[in-house]
Design goal:
The protein has about 350 residues and is an alpha/beta fold. The chain folds into three domains: about 90 residues, OB fold (Dihydrolipoamide Acetyltransferase, E2P) (Beta Barrel); about 150 residues, Rossmann fold, CATH 3.40.50; about 80 residues, Probable gtpase engc, domain 3 (Ribonucleotide Reductase Protein R1, domain 1, Orthogonal Bundle), CATH 1.10.40.50. Helix content is about 30%, strand content about 20%. Strand 6 and strand 7 form a beta hairpin. The longest helix is centred in the middle third of the chain and has 14 residues. About 5% of the residues have low confidence.
């Protein structure tokens, strides 16, 4: 089997693709406004979406994104641009609010298996930002891995790792360095044929350098960080690259600009959620209520005040203020069926339709 096709994850999608007779399986590897570069079994070609797909899509998030598996009318460009007729179901998706709209969201990257959350061990080190990235990653469906870069600049590495492990419960932590040529090799165990990874993190933390090391050549432009220790972001377009040892990596500027449109706070703040189950009141806001287990943990030093503040801030930003984890999941379901006035009304609507058949 062609190593490139295997790396792109085609084999696991062949069964889904088989239902579309007369069409060819492809994967979006780059996006240029309304055009897409798509890799097929035989080649790469420029493609656009069909008129039917364009007019049947109600949301921007229904349009193809880098990483998507799509069905095309051709497998090469010998007779012009390809036409995308279908987008196969996504197993993960990173979204952000679309520019100039109040409600619509767009997919930045899709079908990512592992997301490397990069944080350098210099002035970029920020636990609150890490919590934000973790919430987004867990919600996307991808598995987060914390990647600490520039370890050569840190003289208290063990203390930093201890802080992260207390805030990123159950998440792997990997330490890398750009000083040595093999400083990236700790990432290789997460990369295999058919699997796709992506990088998330603020500018200047070394994402592009790590991607270039994985690719074995300088395909991604890098730039030195400024004197104020902040990076200048270089990537200007979304693109997927095949890794020579197997697997694929997505590089996109959108991954650093994600808002908290949807978040999985239950997985990010498992410690807070577990403590909250012991609060006297089910709707405890962890303020001044009697019998608050969360506040008690802060007083005893097993939970920091900063972590609770971050938890509340992210809940508010994600419009989940005042809700516990079960209520948040219920709220998400109600949002999905908002056109029907919530899940209960949606069920009633479905029942009434079945009765009338």
């Amino acid at each position: 089997m062609n190593i490139r096709i295997e790396s792109l994850g085609f084999p696991e999608r062949y069964q889904e693709a088989a239902q579309y007779k007369g069409l060819y399986l492809g994967r979006v590897i780059a996006q240029y406004k309304d055009l897409y570069k798509v890799a097929t079994d035989n080649s790469e070609l420029i493609a656009e979406i069909s008129g039917k797909l364009r007019y049947s899509n109600d949301e921007l998030s229904d349009y193809p994104a880098v990483g998507d598996f799509v069905m095309l009318d051709r497998e090469n460009d010998l007779h012009g641009n390809g036409i995308i007729h279908h987008v196969l179901p996504r197993k993960s998706a990173f979204i952000r609010r679309a520019a100039g709209t109040s409600q619509d969201v767009q997919v930045v990257a899709a079908n990512i298996d592992t997301v490397f959350i990069c944080m350098s061990l210099n002035n970029d080190f920020n636990l609150r930002r890490l919590e934000r990235y973790l919430s987004i990653s867990w919600d996307s469906g991808a598995i987060p891995v914390v990647v600490l870069t520039k370890s050569d600049l840190c003289d208290n590495l063990h203390a930093r790792i201890f802080e992260i492990e207390n805030n990123a419960v159950g998440v792997d932590v990997v330490v890398t360095s750009s000083i040595t040529e093999d400083g990236y090799k700790a990432l290789l165990k997460y990369i295999a044929p058919g699997r796709t990874v992506a990088f998330m993190g603020s500018s200047g933390v070394g994402k592009s350098t790590l991607i270039n090391r994985l690719l074995g050549e300088d395909l991604i432009e890098t730039r030195e960080i400024r004197k104020d220790d902040k990076g200048r972001h270089v990537t200007t377009r979304r693109e997927l690259f095949v890794i020579s040892t197997g697997g694929a990596v997505i590089d996109t500027p959108g991954m650093r600009e994600l808002g908290l449109e949807s978040a999985n706070l239950a997985k990010t703040f498992t410690d807070v959620d577990e403590l909250a189950q012991w609060c006297r009141f089910k709707n405890c806001q962890h303020e001044s209520e009697p019998g608050c287990a969360v506040k008690k943990a802060i007083e005893e030093g097993t939970l920091t005040e900063e972590r609770l503040i971050s938890y509340k801030k992210l809940k508010k930003e994600a419009k989940y203020e005042g809700l516990n984890s079960k209520q948040i999941e219920k709220e998400k379901i109600n949002e999905m069926f908002s056109d029907f006035g919530g899940m209960k009304n949606a069920r009633n609507y479905i029942k009434s339709k079945n009765k009338n058949r």
